[in-house]
Write a structure and sequence with these properties.
This protein is mostly beta strands. The chain is 8% helix and 43% strand. A hairpin with a 2-residue loop joins strand 23 and strand 24. The chain binds sulfanyl-(tricuprio-$l^{4}-sulfanyl)copper (K7E) and dinuclear copper ion (CUA).
Length: 670
Amino acid sequence: MKSSLLRLCSLAVFLGAAALGCKPKNTSDAISGDAASKVYVAPGKYDEFYNFVSGGFNGQMSVYGLPSGRLLKIVPIFSVFPENGYGYSEETKPMLNTSHGFVPWDDQHHLELSQTEGKIDGRWIFANANNTPRIARVDLTTFKTAEILELPNSAGNHSSPFITENTEYVVAGTRFAVPMDDQNGDVPINTLRKNFKSSISFISVNKDSGTMSLAFQLRLPPIDFDLSHSGKGPSHDWFFFSTYNTEQANTLLEVNASQRDKDFILAVNWKKLEAYVKSGKGRTESAKYAHNIYNEQTHSATSTIENKVLAIDAQDLKDICYYIPCPKSPHGCDVDPTGEYIVGSGKLAALIPVFSFTKIQKAIAAKDFIGTYEGIPVIKYESALYGEVQKPGLGPLHTEFDGRGNAITTMFVSSEIVKWNIKDLKVIDRKPTYYSPGHLSIPGGDTRSPNGKYVIVYNKITKDRYLPTGPELAQAAQLFDITGDKMKLLLDFPTVGEPHYAQAVEASLIKDKSVKFFKLEDNKHPYATLGEKNAKVVRNGKRVDIYITEIRSHFTPDNIEGIKMGDQVYWHMTNLEQDWDVPHGFAIKSAANTAELLVMPGETQTLYWTPEKPGIYPFYCTDFCSALHQEMQGYVRVSPENSNTPLSFSTGTNLPDSANTPQYLKENLN
Ligand code: K7E
Ligand code: CUA
């Protein structure tokens, strides 16, 4: 969102909003005296919250502790990660497979923790990939990406992955309208209105395993979906989506998609829609999309290409979809903890409209419509509106809730967060942020039961907040205490990538479920080596499988000869440790131009290697595992294709040729 919002920013200044400006004054006096003690987590003590932060253009998720802001982990989801071999090992490569082949990068904007009865249950966190539309599920016992599902008929998967209160569905609205995958896409771009459609994907989630499946897609007129949130409590059956480009422009959207005074929030009765689908409405269309699942028994992923999708047209269903006019290119679409209030944040609007679920229902019952948009009823703005927050600031983007009847909204253009009361819509407090906040997060802040202790704000621009590091500066998060009427800035901390949405949750919901190591007896990897005595090197034509183990502080085998040019070599590394936090690494000189592997205790991971020329190739452990970690090393010998070097492998027995012993060693000098 950075570039377009920067343009908005300059636009607002141009419009005479310079008084609020992009950069707040008084950057130093915003900190109060006791801030340091409030974020201090003593050495050896745990943070109270996990903060899961989207990585934006790095395709990863980072995990911080709060209130300290300490970075705990980076979890690769949609991007290869040389640090641990994700996307490089044979086992993880299928995770990044798509209908377009291997796609090693994506743009990750939104995260959503799984919920049961509207409360975070600490089991999984879902992530979206914008560019090549995908939804991922990260397992919060291993902090690893467990599943990735590609979405057909979609492009710029931005309005995603938002979930229903019991994680029945993950929904994903397309940003771009596109021709459907089973149609001829070779059409003039300016026939968008005729040939393009928008889709919302409903992905069902298995209650026990978490396994996702693309249940159905709802087809809609070609306008752009931006964000969404499900209803709660009384509005449980509904989903709300913000849209833009109701103009259906296909060029210079900056201008052409900002013509109309209002775009829409789309209300979808997903419960009824589900019933229609179950009753057999909808049609099967051909489609091609990958479904990738990581199995922690085999420590391997599989990728399956699916070829069908169930589609259902919004225009054919008279009581499912309703548009609600919402001022000026709405972005955030947030539902308060009671489920009654739906907050739309028009990026260009000078107010925040708050819609009432009760009034929406009444308007639907009374057919209080101003007309239809491509066959879908449009509810009268005033009939759906609870009220407007007047003069909240400039460039409202996203809203979270504190659970005490208040909402906090980020103002991108005026660089501040604004707290307002949901009932009387009065602004209670505003605090500058440094600078240009995008998303914000309160623990449970989009669920039925927020923990209103902190808000964390993710800023797009850092400027002078940190030591300069060349043209690009760290993105930054800021932590505020929100327990009082007035919000208090406590801490700045730099973040990895460019955070968009984030989630925070009490650590107690997750920390005790953490897997400490994988049990060797459960290791069902087909190339696992369960004990050093089983280590071996097996040739099968050109294919060579090296069954190799790692334990402090050696490889078995660590001397291998008889590999030949043209061989396809698979290094299957099994880490034999059965202890917490003892990974071993594996790297081999110039190995297939890839990365290292980081193998968790009890796990097997494979590096594929085709030697480039005859010679000796050293390999070693990259993770400092013991006092003798530096000794954890070995050699592999590669001979010409036609050589008759026999295949041999060993550890500790292939002793030096005594003819060449240096005098110093012979005399045993010390
Ligand atoms: Cu506002 Cu992609 Cu959620 Cu960025 S989006 S800020
Ligand atoms: Cu194993 Cu270092």
